[in-house]
Design brief:
Blueprint lengths: L4 H9 L11 H11 L12 E6 L5 H7 L9 E6 L5 E6 L3 E6 L21 E4 L4 E6 L12 E6 L4 E5 L5 E5 L13 E4 L5 E6 L3 E6 L8 E4 L16 E6 L6 E6 L3 E6 L9 E6 L23 E6 L5 E6 L4 E6 L8 E4 L10 E3 L5 E4 L6 E5 L5 E5 L6 E6 L5 E6 L9 H4 L5 H6 L4 E5 L16
Antiparallel strand pairs: 1-28, 2-3, 3-4, 4-5, 6-7, 7-8, 8-9, 10-11, 11-12, 12-13, 14-15, 15-16, 16-17, 18-19, 19-20, 20-21, 22-23, 23-24, 24-25, 26-27, 27-28
Length: 456
């Protein structure tokens, strides 16, 4: 039986604090061994809930730590760790919670079986609204120094947190032209895990060496200078970042200006080293741009999510008020390969994720339904329509056929409390809108007595 993540946390908590990360070739070899393990089969026709966390996002828990109403303490985003041992969640109460990934064979934490609720093993407090978070790409629970993640919050610098002890390991600061702290709206590690990149307002990217915390960084402008270049480049708030998994140094940046561009990490901050996949306002005359999409080909909202396919050749983008996730072929950069429909009626960020095999794409939506699509054909494989509210976060486990789903959105109660919290159970419904669920979607390897089907 595997050693639980909570037990490892307790063991390392008694050890000295971990230093800032150093590159380790041995941990890369361990990560490759995990990736070479045979992938388990997915069976979306028969699924069951093995874990559900809701009490920590209810009104009782929120009132003890903040003044937010219970229905506003929704889960904003979730991510499985690269080794699949734990799940990280960010919520509206400016907190991050770390959960131990369940063992499907035990069925622990299942609300339907009457077991105790699923609770977090570590909690992290940010001072303001959490914008983005990212796991260290080579994270492995067998290497404590690699167990960390980075976050960015409003009016705060980047924070590197320890996933074992809950301690703050390092802080990375960026400053604008007025020497005032500039908070990143998006954050990501490069594929090698040696640098942290942040997307900032005004078409600005900043890069920190992970081993050198502080205010020493490199700046790359996504907008060319000069009057002749006015209107070109990737303007606006850089709201999403994603690095290609093949280690080529290629990364994608999305902006609220409805643009998606590709950049080379090794380029020395030159706008000419960008490839524009889509920009609604672009005239098609920018230097170094090899492809153009006219506004009639595809209509995108402000980009809020970017995910790479494991082959490194395809990129998925989703936007706010955008009813489709677009799949791009970065080798050609021309018309999108296909689109995956999903309702997005609000400006909320709805998650997008691809499983480790690259066969399935899962998307969140504003209608309270998580949709799983076949990447190759674009067909809808499954729809989880039994969720209580809008689906803001989705994540596939890289180690097991588990799918994590987070629900909730911002609600505005009426002035008359009797109309909102009536005597027909409405209050209880509001308290359970904000939940995290883990679905077990194993195929033929699931024991027959555990294969409890759920109607779509």
């Amino acid at each position: 039986m595997r050693k639980s993540f909570a037990a490892k946390v307790a063991k390392v908590a008694r050890a000295p604090s971990q230093p800032v990360l150093q590159y380790n070739q041995e941990q890369d070899e361990q990560q490759e061994e995990v990736q070479q393990q045979p992938l388990q089969q997915w069976d979306f026709s028969s699924r069951r809930v093995v874990c559900e966390a809701s009490e920590e996002f209810s009104g009782v828990a929120a009132a003890a730590s903040s003044s937010l109403p219970c229905e506003n303490n929704f889960v904003k985003d979730i991510h499985f760790s690269p080794d699949g041992t734990c799940l990280l969640a960010a919520s509206e109460d400016c907190k991050l919670r770390l959960y131990e990934a369940p063992d499907p064979d035990r069925g622990d934490g299942s609300s339907s079986s009457g077991a105790p609720p699923w609770r977090c093993c570590l909690q992290y407090n940010e001072g303001e609204t959490i914008y983005s978070m990212a796991w260290y790409p080579h994270m492995s629970s067998s290497t404590p120094a690699s167990c960390c993640f980075v976050t960015t919050a409003r009016d705060h610098p980047l924070h590197l947190w320890c996933a074992y002890t809950g301690a703050l390991r390092a802080t990375y600061r960026g400053y604008d032209h007025l020497d005032e702290l500039s908070s990143a709206l998006s954050v990501a590690f490069n594929a090698a895990g040696t640098h942290i990149w942040g997307g900032h307002p005004g078409g600005c990217l900043r890069c920190w060496d992970i081993t050198r915390p502080g205010r020493e960084y490199q700046t790359r402008s996504t907008v060319p200078k000069g009057k002749k270049c006015r209107g070109r480049g990737q303007t606006g708030l850089i709201s999403a970042l994603a690095f290609a998994p093949d280690g080529s140094g290629l990364f994608a940046a999305g902006a609220y200006s409805r643009s998606v561009c590709l950049y080379d990490e090794s380029a020395a901050g030159a706008y000419s080293h960008s490839v524009r996949l889509y920009d609604e306002r672009w005239s098609g005359k920018g230097p170094g741009v090899v492809a153009e999409l006219s506004p009639g080909d595809v209509k995108m909202g402000g980009v809020t999510a970017l995910r790479w396919h494991p082959d490194g050749n395809r990129l998925f983008s989703g936007g706010r008020m955008d009813d489709a996730v677009v799949c791009w072929d970065v080798r050609s950069g021309r018309a999108p390969l296909r689109t995956f429909a999903r309702p997005a009626a609000t400006n909320q960020r709805f998650g997008v994720d691809v499983d480790a095999s690259g066969r399935y794409l899962v998307t969140g939506a504003s209608d309270g339904c998580a949709r799983v699509h076949n990447v190759a054909s674009g067909a809808l494989v499954s729809a989880l329509a039994d969720l209580p509210d809008a689906v803001g976060g989705v994540s596939f486990s890289p180690a097991a056929p588990l799918l994590a789903v987070a629900t909730g959105q911002r609600h505005f109660p009426q002035c008359d409390d009797d109309e909102v919290h009536g005597g027909d159970g409405t209050e209880e419904t509001l308290l359970r809108r904000n939940v995290i669920r883990i679905y077990d979607m194993r195929g033929s390897d699931r024991p027959a007595q555990e294969a409890v089907g759920m109607n779509e």
